Each structure stands twice: as C-alpha cells, then as structure tokens.
Amino acid sequence: MKFFLIFCLTLTLIHGKNIRFEILGSGGPEIDGRASTSYLLWIDDKAKLLIDLGSGSMLRFEQSSAATEDLDAVVLTHMHIDHSADLPSFMKAGFFTNRQNSLDIVGPYGNNYFPSIREFVEILFGKKGAYRYMQDILTSQSDSFELIPIEIAKGEKKTLRYKDFTLNFITVHHGIVPALALRIDVGSKSIVISGDTNDEQNTLERFAYRADLFIAHHAIPQETNNFAKELHMTPSTIANIAVKAQVKKIVLTHRMKRTKTHEEETLKLIHKDFSGDVIFAEDRMKIDF
After folding, report:
1. Residue 208: CB partners within 8 Å, gap ≥ 6?
2. Tell me, what DSSP letter sits at residue 153?
3. Do 144 and 172 touch, CB atoms closer than 8 A?
4. Is 185 helix (H, G, I), strand (E, B) or coil?
5. Which CATH number fits domain 17-281: 3.40.50.150, 3.20.20.70, 3.60.15.10, 3.40.50.720?
C-alpha cells in the first residue's frame, strides 16, 4: 500500500496537473446559435477560472457541470455586452450554491465611454445599482459570497497568483474600449487569450511567447473596413503574432457571420506562415493538455 501511494505521487509529480480548457461560448454579439465569448479553465476536473460572461455563457456554464464553489477567480476582458452580460445571472445563481468564500473579479480600468470593473459591479449591485437588492454581495456580510473587484490600470502589467495557476495581464488596444489580454500559466503549460484587440501596440508577440495555446479572437476577415480594423485583428495579424511568438496551437474564436464565409481563406492566410495547428472554436469545445 505504501509503495502504491508513493507510485501515485511520483506519477503526479511527473505528469503534473490535469489541465483542460473549455470554450463555453465561441460567438460574438449576433444571434447566430452560439453563446457569446466565455471560457473555463479546468484543473484536476474542477473549474478554477471563468473568463468572460457573454450572453448565453451562463447556460453553457451549467451544461459543463462546473461548480461555482470551485472557482478561484472571474475575468472580464472588457465591458462590451457580448463579454459581460451574464454576470448578474451568474451572481444570482451563486446565491443558491454552497459557496461562502469571496470571489475575485478582474477587469480593466474605465474611461469616458466605459466603466472600470469597480464601477461596473457598483452600477450593477451597488446601493443605487440596477440590481441593488443584491448589494450585499459587495460586502463581507453577503448572504451568498462577496465579489471583490480587481482593476488593471491602463498600461499596467499585473500578475495574480492562485494556488493552482498564475495570471498575467496586459492592456490591449480595442478602439476606445479599455481591454485586457491574459496569460494563464499552469505548471509548464501556458494559455494566452488575446481578448478583443487589433494589437496596434504590438504587445501580444512578446506576451504570447511560446504559449501552448493561443486563443485568438477572429471577428473580422482579412479585407474589411478601417473601423473594424481599429477593433480587431485580421487573420494575417494573428498569423504574424503566432509565428513570432512561436506558439504551438491557435484556436480561432469570437466567430461572426462576417467571418463565416471567409474561414477557408482565413486558414490559407494563417497557414501561409504558421505551420502549427489552427482550430475553429465551437461552443463547449474542450482542449486537454
């Protein structure tokens, strides 16, 4: 028995943690049969990190059998509706779980057009908020659990460490919208989520260096108008980042009607320079490490 326990411990040390990344929502703001942007990080069969809560993500979270009690943090990459709309539903559902410890919610700074993460949760749940009847969740006296906002300032590079994983954040260019990209490190494995950005400041190349998985938001085709290019990366930009960063695999998500008819073209453009795997995301897609 003692030998068996030592053998199991040795296997754990050799192989590390069981890591799974799930695409809860692979769509954008359109009504197209997909949930909007949302992701889950699973470690040893427990959902530890929830990224973005676009419309439909709450249902996908339920379908995944994830438990709110297991989460260490929630991240909102920015405050567009298709990345944040289901937060109130998620918090209301949390009242009916057994979770008691506080939950971090990480998001960007604000400006004249968008609230910061602190302002956002105050607008929703504060004393004068839209859902003010749930204002206790912003206090330690909450009847369910306390929501603790953590704000990433403009230009800030921030690291947050949790028991099973580390998060690194940078701010990225998404037009007038304060937005974040994040890198998740679990042992020797790395996942980088571009968030919505056109990478105008060329920050993703270094940030995604040698990532095992590059989650790239593919919301526009190669040929599009200048306004769309102010917000999102073209396929050639995604390929350029992936090559220079030496990432192992690309997952293209935030799929929209305007890109659907160009996906074959997108693959050709990316594979022209990038030799690794390129996958189009689907709702509830799971990627194991």
Report:
1. 183, 192, 194, 214, 241, 242, 245, 247
2. P
3. no
4. strand
5. 3.60.15.10
Helix or strand run (H / E) with residue 21 = strand 19-25
167: Cβ contacts below 8 Å, ≥ 6 apart: 49, 73, 75, 106, 159, 160, 161, 182, 183, 184, 185
The domain locations on the chain are 17-281
- Residue type for position 201: Q
Q: Where are the beta strands (DSSP E) in 125-165?
A: 147-152, 158-161
Cα 288 to chain centroid distance, Å, stands at 16
Grade residue 154 by pLDDT with cuts at 50, 70 and 90: very high
CA–CA distance, 23 with 61 (Å, rounded to integer): 10
Question: Sign of dihedral through CA atoms 230, 54, 71, 8?
Answer: negative
Enumerate the β-bridge partners of residue 174.
Answer: 176
Phi-psi region of 74 (alpha: psi -120 to 50; beta: other; left: phi over 0): beta
Q: Whole-model pTM?
A: 0.94
Q: What is the DSSP letter of 269?
A: H
pLDDT digits (tens, 9 = 90+) for 194-207: 999 999 999 999 99
Q: Which amino acid is at 197?
A: T
Whole-number pLDDT of residue 41 = 98
